[in-house]
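Retro notes, structure queue

What went well: the backlog is down to a handful. What didn't: a couple of records were mislabeled last round, so from now on we paste the full input next to the output in the thread. Example, using UDP-N-acetylmuramoyl-tripeptide--D-alanyl-D-alanine ligase from Neotabrizicola shimadae:
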Amino acid sequence: MTALWTTDDAEAATGGRSTRTWQASGVSIDTRTIQPGDLFVALKDIRDGHDFVAQALAKGAAAALVSRIPEDVPADAPLLIVPEVLPALEALGRAARARTRAKVAAVTGSVGKTSTKEMLRVLLSGQGKTHAAEASYNNHWGVPLTLARMAPDTDFAVLELGMNHAGEIAPLARMVQPHAVMITTIAPAHLEALGSLEGIAREKASIVEGLQPGGAAILPADAPCADILQDIAAASGARIVAFGEAASADYRLESTRLCDTATVAHALRNGAPFLFKVMSPGRHFAANALGALALAEALGADPVMAALDIGRWQPPAGRGTRERILLDPVEETHFDLIDDAFNANPASLAVALDILIAAKPSDGQGALHQGRRIAILGDMLELGPDEIALHQAIARHPGLDAIAVIHCVGPRMKALWQALPRRQRGHWTETAPELAAHAKTLFDPGDIVLVKGSKGSKVSLVVDALRRLGQGVAQDHRGTE
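Corresponding output:
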């Protein structure tokens, strides 16, 4: 077992006291996924992690980071005792950052943070040992946990920084100390907390406060409030690299071609043309990939290899993953499911609708004999006082007529349902479980079905219900356009 943390290292980082000698090969906060040899961190969230220390040790944890000895744990168990657990985890994260020579990137933005982080994981892993955040570990505990899991011999590290309120990103950025940062875009997400797009832009731009001297800021040239981003980055001394469709962009997206299973992009890198492909349809994926390529080059990666390797990326689960649900293996009837149920705001929903509009259903199946485009949309949350108007505005989305039926979930989406022409209105339900109960009635064989909504709307339950109707097969797009 290679030691990630030893007793001496962890005590020096946290100022804590160990009950006995131990060494850990990983760091975990969850007994459901803990691995033998992990250091279990007893964070207090909905539940107090101290209640699970005995279970973690029974599953093979090397030690537990605690602020007290739980009643059901022997006093001689391997424990690292500290005054408070979260500050100790932060200290581990800072120590891990200090001991590595890795080139470190940090990504934020209103939309596309996790997808872009995963793109960077793919294109950097071909050029060195790469460490990246799991899932959306982008908050006050996710960022230090990601750092604490980073091996000293890492070549590249990619962190995702998120926020719900003002003042959250800058402290995380200072902890990460990135060599390069990227802002994917600015969109009306978290308006409830930040009040305006300008407020969102200023909060996202505070990521530059953690930049290493001479570091690069990869900024969206086409985003709302791009001037605010540029001004704040310039004031910090960052080297600015712009990406997008604007004529002034250093990495300029000239054109994209959406295929049924991929996006082919033509771009300019400082005036020199190049082509790249991502294995999922969507202009936003091409735009984020372009920014990721700029960020990779800023970290010292080979730009040609990176442009080739970006073609190996596919969206994570719940973020636009497309799969085929087989309904009858004998008759070979099916429908296609686009699972984009992890999150939603007006910008990301518009992109998801464009992908659905461009998708091709399968004809010759089911009672209708003609495949349709179906949307199942859940509430978009945290949009502030204009939330009803923002939901109603979806009815004016260009090309929406191509979507045959739109099912809606939640009190906010009722505003869209009422604004739709009667021929497009599907079901409306107050909650996702109510709609999930009618999963069989939401589509016909041959249809392509998009499910999109904020995580709190729980439309992922509808995705689960649809998957249970058959055998899901993720589509393999390798070698296609």
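Agreed that this is the format going forward. Reviewer comment attached to the example: Residues 472-481 have pLDDT under 50 and may be disordered.
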